[in-house]
Amino acid sequence: MLNDKKQIFGWVMYDWANSAYVTTVTVALLPAYFAGAIVPEGGITIGGTTYSATVLWGLTISFSSFFVFIFAPILGAISDFSAAKKKFLMTFCYTGSAAACLLFFCGPGDIWPTIILFSIAQIGFVGANIFYDAFLPEIASEDKMDWVSGLGFACGYVGGGLQFALALALIALGDKIGISPGMAARIGILMAALWWGGFSIISLFYLKETKNSETLPPEYRHLPQWLAFIRVGIVRLVVTMRKAGRFRQLLLFLVAYMIYTNGIQTVISMATIFGKEELKFSNTVLMLALLMIQFIGMIGALGFSKLAELISAKNALIITLIVWSFVVIYAYFMQSPSEYFIMSVFVGLVLGGAQSLSRSLYGAIIPAQAAAEFYGFYSVFNKGSAILGPLAFALIRQFTGTARNSILGLIVFFILGLILLLFVDVNQAKATARGES
Protein backbone atom coordinates (compact mmCIF):
# COMPACT_ATOMS: atom_id res chain seq x y z
CA MET A 1 0.00 0.00 0.00
CA LEU A 2 3.03 2.32 0.16
CA ASN A 3 2.82 5.34 -2.17
CA ASP A 4 -0.59 4.26 -3.49
CA LYS A 5 -2.17 7.33 -5.10
CA LYS A 6 -5.70 6.59 -3.91
CA GLN A 7 -4.54 6.06 -0.34
CA ILE A 8 -2.55 9.29 -0.39
CA PHE A 9 -5.50 11.15 -1.92
CA GLY A 10 -7.82 9.90 0.80
CA TRP A 11 -5.28 10.83 3.47
CA VAL A 12 -4.62 14.39 2.28
CA MET A 13 -8.35 15.03 1.85
CA TYR A 14 -8.79 14.72 5.60
CA ASP A 15 -6.41 17.65 5.99
CA TRP A 16 -8.52 19.49 3.40
CA ALA A 17 -11.60 18.71 5.52
CA ASN A 18 -10.46 19.45 9.07
CA SER A 19 -8.44 22.56 8.23
CA ALA A 20 -11.71 24.41 7.61
CA TYR A 21 -12.57 23.86 11.26
CA VAL A 22 -9.22 24.90 12.69
CA THR A 23 -8.98 27.96 10.41
CA THR A 24 -12.52 29.30 10.62
CA VAL A 25 -13.57 28.13 14.08
CA THR A 26 -10.44 27.82 16.24
CA VAL A 27 -8.28 30.57 14.76
CA ALA A 28 -10.58 33.09 13.09
CA LEU A 29 -14.29 33.55 13.65
CA LEU A 30 -14.94 32.00 17.04
CA PRO A 31 -12.17 33.79 19.01
CA ALA A 32 -13.17 37.13 17.44
CA TYR A 33 -16.87 36.45 18.11
CA PHE A 34 -16.03 35.20 21.63
CA ALA A 35 -14.12 38.39 22.46
CA GLY A 36 -16.43 40.79 20.62
CA ALA A 37 -19.89 39.43 21.39
CA ILE A 38 -20.06 36.49 23.78
CA VAL A 39 -17.84 37.82 26.60
CA PRO A 40 -18.69 41.32 27.92
CA GLU A 41 -16.08 43.99 27.21
CA GLY A 42 -14.89 44.09 30.82
CA GLY A 43 -14.60 40.30 31.04
CA ILE A 44 -16.34 38.15 33.64
CA THR A 45 -15.76 37.82 37.36
CA ILE A 46 -15.30 34.37 38.87
CA GLY A 47 -14.59 34.02 42.59
CA GLY A 48 -13.79 37.71 42.89
CA THR A 49 -11.27 37.69 40.03
CA THR A 50 -12.00 39.23 36.63
CA TYR A 51 -10.94 37.29 33.55
CA SER A 52 -10.67 38.80 30.08
CA ALA A 53 -11.75 37.04 26.89
CA THR A 54 -8.08 36.38 26.08
CA VAL A 55 -7.48 34.63 29.39
CA LEU A 56 -10.68 32.56 29.11
CA TRP A 57 -9.78 31.52 25.57
CA GLY A 58 -6.27 30.46 26.56
CA LEU A 59 -7.58 28.44 29.51
CA THR A 60 -10.18 26.71 27.31
CA ILE A 61 -7.55 25.70 24.75
CA SER A 62 -5.38 24.37 27.60
CA PHE A 63 -8.19 22.33 29.16
CA SER A 64 -9.24 20.57 25.95
CA SER A 65 -5.61 19.82 25.13
CA PHE A 66 -5.05 18.43 28.62
CA PHE A 67 -7.91 15.96 28.09
CA VAL A 68 -6.30 14.56 24.95
CA PHE A 69 -2.89 14.71 26.64
CA ILE A 70 -4.16 12.19 29.22
CA PHE A 71 -5.85 9.75 26.85
CA ALA A 72 -3.85 9.98 23.60
CA PRO A 73 -1.23 7.28 24.30
CA ILE A 74 -3.90 4.80 25.39
CA LEU A 75 -6.00 5.51 22.30
CA GLY A 76 -2.97 5.06 20.08
CA ALA A 77 -2.08 1.72 21.68
CA ILE A 78 -5.70 0.50 21.42
CA SER A 79 -5.72 1.51 17.78
CA ASP A 80 -2.58 -0.51 17.03
CA PHE A 81 -3.98 -3.52 18.88
CA SER A 82 -7.40 -3.51 17.21
CA ALA A 83 -6.28 -2.20 13.78
CA ALA A 84 -9.00 0.44 14.20
CA LYS A 85 -7.24 3.69 13.34
CA LYS A 86 -9.88 4.48 10.73
CA LYS A 87 -12.76 3.89 13.14
CA PHE A 88 -11.18 6.05 15.82
CA LEU A 89 -10.38 8.74 13.27
CA MET A 90 -13.98 8.99 12.13
CA THR A 91 -15.45 8.72 15.65
CA PHE A 92 -13.43 11.70 16.87
CA CYS A 93 -14.00 13.54 13.60
CA TYR A 94 -17.81 13.38 13.69
CA THR A 95 -18.03 14.01 17.43
CA GLY A 96 -16.01 17.19 16.95
CA SER A 97 -17.92 18.20 13.85
CA ALA A 98 -21.28 17.78 15.62
CA ALA A 99 -20.14 19.89 18.60
CA ALA A 100 -18.87 22.59 16.23
CA CYS A 101 -22.25 22.63 14.48
CA LEU A 102 -23.96 23.30 17.81
CA LEU A 103 -21.80 26.40 18.33
CA PHE A 104 -24.14 28.05 15.83
CA PHE A 105 -26.71 28.35 18.62
CA CYS A 106 -24.38 30.23 21.01
CA GLY A 107 -25.13 33.95 21.21
CA PRO A 108 -24.08 36.92 23.37
CA GLY A 109 -23.69 35.94 27.00
CA ASP A 110 -23.55 32.20 26.32
CA ILE A 111 -20.04 31.93 27.75
CA TRP A 112 -20.20 28.48 29.33
CA PRO A 113 -22.13 26.74 26.52
CA THR A 114 -19.55 28.12 24.08
CA ILE A 115 -16.63 26.94 26.21
CA ILE A 116 -18.12 23.44 26.67
CA LEU A 117 -19.04 22.90 23.01
CA PHE A 118 -15.73 24.30 21.79
CA SER A 119 -13.84 22.02 24.20
CA ILE A 120 -15.68 18.97 22.82
CA ALA A 121 -14.97 20.09 19.25
CA GLN A 122 -11.28 20.59 20.08
CA ILE A 123 -11.06 17.16 21.69
CA GLY A 124 -12.59 15.67 18.55
CA PHE A 125 -10.19 17.58 16.31
CA VAL A 126 -6.96 16.76 18.12
CA GLY A 127 -8.06 13.20 18.95
CA ALA A 128 -8.76 12.44 15.29
CA ASN A 129 -5.35 13.78 14.32
CA ILE A 130 -3.64 11.05 16.39
CA PHE A 131 -5.01 8.42 14.04
CA TYR A 132 -4.69 10.57 10.95
CA ASP A 133 -0.98 11.10 11.60
CA ALA A 134 -0.52 7.39 12.33
CA PHE A 135 -1.51 6.50 8.75
CA LEU A 136 1.51 8.39 7.33
CA PRO A 137 4.16 5.63 7.74
CA GLU A 138 1.68 3.12 6.26
CA ILE A 139 0.95 5.07 3.07
CA ALA A 140 4.33 6.69 2.26
CA SER A 141 7.85 5.27 2.00
CA GLU A 142 10.62 7.00 3.92
CA ASP A 143 11.90 8.87 0.85
CA LYS A 144 8.38 10.19 0.11
CA MET A 145 7.30 10.94 3.65
CA ASP A 146 8.42 14.59 3.74
CA TRP A 147 6.63 15.28 0.47
CA VAL A 148 3.38 13.48 1.40
CA SER A 149 3.31 15.18 4.80
CA GLY A 150 3.84 18.55 3.13
CA LEU A 151 1.17 17.73 0.55
CA GLY A 152 -1.30 17.05 3.35
CA PHE A 153 -0.62 20.40 4.97
CA ALA A 154 -0.74 22.15 1.59
CA CYS A 155 -4.15 20.67 0.79
CA GLY A 156 -5.26 21.66 4.28
CA TYR A 157 -4.25 25.25 3.75
CA VAL A 158 -6.07 25.39 0.42
CA GLY A 159 -9.23 23.69 1.73
CA GLY A 160 -9.27 25.73 4.92
CA GLY A 161 -8.54 28.89 2.98
CA LEU A 162 -11.35 28.33 0.48
CA GLN A 163 -13.92 27.65 3.16
CA PHE A 164 -12.69 30.62 5.16
CA ALA A 165 -12.96 32.82 2.05
CA LEU A 166 -16.60 31.75 1.68
CA ALA A 167 -17.24 32.65 5.32
CA LEU A 168 -15.60 36.05 4.83
CA ALA A 169 -17.70 36.68 1.73
CA LEU A 170 -20.83 35.97 3.75
CA ILE A 171 -19.73 38.40 6.46
CA ALA A 172 -18.87 41.08 3.89
CA LEU A 173 -22.24 40.71 2.13
CA GLY A 174 -24.23 40.25 5.33
CA ASP A 175 -25.70 43.74 5.46
CA LYS A 176 -26.83 43.55 1.84
CA ILE A 177 -28.72 40.32 2.38
CA GLY A 178 -30.09 41.21 5.81
CA ILE A 179 -27.72 39.20 8.02
CA SER A 180 -26.06 40.80 11.06
CA PRO A 181 -22.29 40.40 11.54
CA GLY A 182 -22.88 38.14 14.53
CA MET A 183 -25.25 35.87 12.62
CA ALA A 184 -22.86 35.81 9.65
CA ALA A 185 -20.06 34.66 11.99
CA ARG A 186 -22.28 31.92 13.42
CA ILE A 187 -23.24 30.73 9.93
CA GLY A 188 -19.56 30.74 8.96
CA ILE A 189 -18.79 28.51 11.97
CA LEU A 190 -21.60 26.14 10.98
CA MET A 191 -20.31 26.01 7.39
CA ALA A 192 -16.83 25.06 8.64
CA ALA A 193 -18.23 22.27 10.82
CA LEU A 194 -20.23 20.84 7.92
CA TRP A 195 -17.21 21.14 5.60
CA TRP A 196 -15.14 19.15 8.11
CA GLY A 197 -17.67 16.36 8.42
CA GLY A 198 -18.69 16.36 4.75
CA PHE A 199 -15.29 16.13 3.08
CA SER A 200 -14.14 13.54 5.63
CA ILE A 201 -16.42 11.09 3.82
CA ILE A 202 -13.82 11.02 1.02
CA SER A 203 -11.15 9.89 3.51
CA LEU A 204 -13.58 7.36 4.93
CA PHE A 205 -13.99 5.91 1.43
CA TYR A 206 -10.35 5.79 0.28
CA LEU A 207 -8.30 5.14 3.43
CA LYS A 208 -7.75 1.45 4.17
CA GLU A 209 -6.33 -0.27 7.22
CA THR A 210 -3.21 -2.18 6.21
CA LYS A 211 -2.90 -4.32 9.34
CA ASN A 212 -5.13 -7.03 10.79
CA SER A 213 -6.25 -6.87 14.39
CA GLU A 214 -4.39 -8.97 16.90
CA THR A 215 -5.99 -11.70 19.01
CA LEU A 216 -6.76 -10.72 22.58
CA PRO A 217 -4.56 -12.47 25.13
CA PRO A 218 -6.41 -15.20 27.08
CA GLU A 219 -6.44 -13.21 30.32
CA TYR A 220 -8.57 -10.48 28.70
CA ARG A 221 -11.07 -12.58 26.70
CA HIS A 222 -13.63 -12.82 29.50
CA LEU A 223 -14.00 -9.02 29.56
CA PRO A 224 -16.29 -6.90 27.38
CA GLN A 225 -14.35 -5.90 24.28
CA TRP A 226 -14.24 -2.20 25.13
CA LEU A 227 -12.88 -2.91 28.62
CA ALA A 228 -10.40 -5.46 27.27
CA PHE A 229 -9.10 -2.90 24.77
CA ILE A 230 -8.69 -0.30 27.53
CA ARG A 231 -6.79 -2.78 29.68
CA VAL A 232 -4.60 -3.78 26.77
CA GLY A 233 -4.13 -0.14 25.84
CA ILE A 234 -2.86 0.69 29.33
CA VAL A 235 -0.47 -2.26 29.28
CA ARG A 236 0.78 -1.26 25.85
CA LEU A 237 1.26 2.30 27.06
CA VAL A 238 3.59 1.03 29.78
CA VAL A 239 5.42 -1.12 27.23
CA THR A 240 5.72 1.84 24.85
CA MET A 241 7.14 3.99 27.63
CA ARG A 242 9.77 1.33 28.24
CA LYS A 243 10.47 1.12 24.50
CA ALA A 244 10.81 4.89 24.26
CA GLY A 245 13.39 4.76 27.03
CA ARG A 246 15.65 2.87 24.62
CA PHE A 247 15.18 5.50 21.89
CA ARG A 248 17.32 8.30 23.30
CA GLN A 249 17.41 10.34 20.10
CA LEU A 250 13.65 9.95 19.62
CA LEU A 251 13.01 11.19 23.15
CA LEU A 252 15.34 14.13 22.63
CA PHE A 253 13.46 15.07 19.46
CA LEU A 254 10.12 14.80 21.27
CA VAL A 255 11.27 17.08 24.07
CA ALA A 256 12.57 19.61 21.55
CA TYR A 257 9.33 19.28 19.57
CA MET A 258 7.16 19.83 22.64
CA ILE A 259 9.07 22.97 23.55
CA TYR A 260 9.12 24.70 20.16
CA THR A 261 5.55 23.65 19.42
CA ASN A 262 4.55 25.51 22.56
CA GLY A 263 5.29 28.66 20.61
CA ILE A 264 3.72 27.53 17.35
CA GLN A 265 0.47 26.26 18.88
CA THR A 266 0.09 29.40 20.96
CA VAL A 267 0.56 31.70 17.96
CA ILE A 268 -2.07 29.69 16.05
CA SER A 269 -4.66 29.69 18.83
CA MET A 270 -4.10 33.19 20.25
CA ALA A 271 -3.24 35.36 17.22
CA THR A 272 -6.76 36.53 16.42
CA ILE A 273 -7.80 37.27 19.98
CA PHE A 274 -4.44 39.09 20.48
CA GLY A 275 -5.17 41.29 17.47
CA LYS A 276 -8.76 41.87 18.56
CA GLU A 277 -8.36 42.65 22.25
CA GLU A 278 -4.77 43.92 22.54
CA LEU A 279 -4.11 45.65 19.21
CA LYS A 280 -7.73 46.73 18.59
CA PHE A 281 -7.56 45.79 14.92
CA SER A 282 -10.79 45.48 12.98
CA ASN A 283 -12.26 42.11 12.10
CA THR A 284 -11.54 42.87 8.44
CA VAL A 285 -7.79 43.21 9.10
CA LEU A 286 -7.69 40.06 11.22
CA MET A 287 -9.67 37.94 8.78
CA LEU A 288 -7.73 39.07 5.69
CA ALA A 289 -4.44 38.35 7.44
CA LEU A 290 -5.59 34.85 8.31
CA LEU A 291 -6.72 34.28 4.74
CA MET A 292 -3.23 35.28 3.57
CA ILE A 293 -1.67 32.81 5.99
CA GLN A 294 -3.72 29.93 4.57
CA PHE A 295 -2.52 30.30 1.01
CA ILE A 296 1.03 31.31 1.90
CA GLY A 297 1.07 28.30 4.25
CA MET A 298 0.51 26.04 1.25
CA ILE A 299 3.63 27.47 -0.39
CA GLY A 300 5.56 27.10 2.87
CA ALA A 301 4.55 23.47 3.41
CA LEU A 302 5.51 22.40 -0.12
CA GLY A 303 8.56 24.66 -0.30
CA PHE A 304 10.08 23.45 2.95
CA SER A 305 9.32 19.84 1.97
CA LYS A 306 11.41 20.34 -1.17
CA LEU A 307 14.09 22.13 0.84
CA ALA A 308 14.19 19.13 3.20
CA GLU A 309 15.06 16.89 0.26
CA LEU A 310 18.09 19.09 -0.42
CA ILE A 311 19.41 19.87 3.07
CA SER A 312 17.55 17.29 5.27
CA ALA A 313 14.33 17.67 7.25
CA LYS A 314 16.21 18.57 10.43
CA ASN A 315 18.13 21.47 8.85
CA ALA A 316 15.03 22.81 7.13
CA LEU A 317 13.19 22.64 10.45
CA ILE A 318 15.98 24.59 12.15
CA ILE A 319 15.52 27.38 9.60
CA THR A 320 11.81 27.63 10.42
CA LEU A 321 12.55 27.98 14.16
CA ILE A 322 15.01 30.81 13.53
CA VAL A 323 12.34 32.65 11.53
CA TRP A 324 9.74 31.98 14.26
CA SER A 325 12.04 33.66 16.81
CA PHE A 326 12.19 36.82 14.72
CA VAL A 327 8.41 36.71 14.19
CA VAL A 328 7.56 36.99 17.90
CA ILE A 329 10.09 39.80 18.43
CA TYR A 330 8.51 41.67 15.51
CA ALA A 331 5.01 41.03 16.92
CA TYR A 332 5.95 42.58 20.27
CA PHE A 333 6.68 45.94 18.63
CA MET A 334 3.85 45.75 16.08
CA GLN A 335 1.47 48.72 15.94
CA SER A 336 -0.25 49.00 12.55
CA PRO A 337 -2.36 46.73 10.35
CA SER A 338 0.32 46.86 7.64
CA GLU A 339 2.84 45.42 10.11
CA TYR A 340 0.31 42.73 10.99
CA PHE A 341 0.10 41.76 7.31
CA ILE A 342 3.89 41.60 7.02
CA MET A 343 4.06 39.33 10.05
CA SER A 344 1.34 37.12 8.52
CA VAL A 345 3.46 36.49 5.42
CA PHE A 346 6.33 35.08 7.48
CA VAL A 347 3.97 33.14 9.76
CA GLY A 348 2.39 31.50 6.72
CA LEU A 349 5.76 30.44 5.31
CA VAL A 350 7.14 28.85 8.47
CA LEU A 351 3.86 27.55 9.89
CA GLY A 352 3.32 24.96 7.17
CA GLY A 353 7.01 24.13 7.02
CA ALA A 354 7.47 23.52 10.74
CA GLN A 355 4.32 21.42 11.06
CA SER A 356 4.88 19.18 8.05
CA LEU A 357 8.59 18.64 8.70
CA SER A 358 8.01 17.77 12.36
CA ARG A 359 5.41 15.17 11.44
CA SER A 360 7.45 13.56 8.68
CA LEU A 361 10.72 13.59 10.65
CA TYR A 362 9.01 11.85 13.54
CA GLY A 363 7.46 9.29 11.18
CA ALA A 364 10.92 8.46 9.86
CA ILE A 365 12.43 7.68 13.27
CA ILE A 366 9.74 5.46 14.84
CA PRO A 367 9.16 1.70 14.40
CA ALA A 368 6.69 1.39 11.52
CA GLN A 369 4.79 -1.55 13.01
CA ALA A 370 3.73 0.51 16.07
CA ALA A 371 2.93 3.77 14.31
CA ALA A 372 -0.30 4.67 16.14
CA GLU A 373 1.24 3.70 19.47
CA PHE A 374 4.20 6.03 18.91
CA TYR A 375 2.03 8.74 17.35
CA GLY A 376 0.10 8.62 20.61
CA PHE A 377 3.33 9.76 22.26
CA TYR A 378 3.75 12.35 19.51
CA SER A 379 0.29 13.64 20.34
CA VAL A 380 1.10 13.67 24.06
CA PHE A 381 4.06 15.95 23.45
CA ASN A 382 2.06 17.95 20.89
CA LYS A 383 -0.90 18.46 23.19
CA GLY A 384 1.38 18.99 26.14
CA SER A 385 2.63 22.04 24.30
CA ALA A 386 -0.93 23.13 23.59
CA ILE A 387 -1.51 23.03 27.34
CA LEU A 388 1.54 24.96 28.46
CA GLY A 389 1.74 27.52 25.65
CA PRO A 390 -1.78 29.02 25.83
CA LEU A 391 -1.73 28.66 29.63
CA ALA A 392 1.53 30.64 29.85
CA PHE A 393 0.12 33.22 27.42
CA ALA A 394 -3.04 33.58 29.55
CA LEU A 395 -1.17 33.84 32.86
CA ILE A 396 1.31 36.44 31.59
CA ARG A 397 -1.63 38.47 30.23
CA GLN A 398 -3.49 38.12 33.55
CA PHE A 399 -0.58 39.21 35.75
CA THR A 400 1.07 41.86 33.55
CA GLY A 401 -2.04 43.35 32.00
CA THR A 402 -0.77 43.19 28.42
CA ALA A 403 -0.61 40.40 25.86
CA ARG A 404 2.49 41.98 24.29
CA ASN A 405 4.55 40.48 27.09
CA SER A 406 2.84 37.15 26.40
CA ILE A 407 3.78 37.17 22.71
CA LEU A 408 7.40 38.12 23.45
CA GLY A 409 7.68 35.35 26.03
CA LEU A 410 7.14 32.78 23.30
CA ILE A 411 10.71 33.29 22.07
CA VAL A 412 11.91 31.14 24.98
CA PHE A 413 10.12 28.14 23.49
CA PHE A 414 11.62 28.63 20.03
CA ILE A 415 15.19 29.17 21.20
CA LEU A 416 15.23 26.31 23.71
CA GLY A 417 13.56 23.94 21.23
CA LEU A 418 16.10 24.91 18.59
CA ILE A 419 19.04 24.23 20.89
CA LEU A 420 17.75 20.75 21.76
CA LEU A 421 16.98 19.96 18.12
CA LEU A 422 20.61 20.66 17.22
CA PHE A 423 21.67 17.71 19.41
CA VAL A 424 19.29 15.19 17.77
CA ASP A 425 21.19 12.58 15.72
CA VAL A 426 18.62 11.67 13.05
CA ASN A 427 20.71 8.89 11.47
CA GLN A 428 21.15 7.16 14.79
CA ALA A 429 17.41 7.52 15.52
CA LYS A 430 16.53 5.92 12.16
CA ALA A 431 18.94 3.04 12.75
CA THR A 432 17.40 2.36 16.16
CA ALA A 433 13.89 2.41 14.67
CA ARG A 434 14.88 -0.06 11.94
CA GLY A 435 16.38 -2.35 14.55
CA GLU A 436 13.05 -2.42 16.39
CA SER A 437 10.97 -3.04 13.24
Describe the structure in your own words.
This protein has 437 residues and is mainly alpha-helical. It has a single domain, classed as MFS general substrate transporter like domains (Growth Hormone, Chain: A, Up-down Bundle). 82% of the residues lie in helices and 1% in strands. The chain contains 16 helices and two strands. It has helices at residues 5-38, 53-82, 85-102, 111-134, 136-139, 142-173, 181-206, 225-246, 248-278, 283-311, 313-333, 337-364, 371-400, 403-409, 411-422, 426-436; strands spanning 44-46, 49-51. It has a two-stranded antiparallel sheet. A hairpin with a 2-residue loop joins strand 1 and strand 2 (49-51). The longest helix is centred in the first third of the chain and has 34 residues, at 5-38. The protein is globular. The chain starts with a helix and ends with a helix. The relative contact order is 0.16. The mean pLDDT is 85.
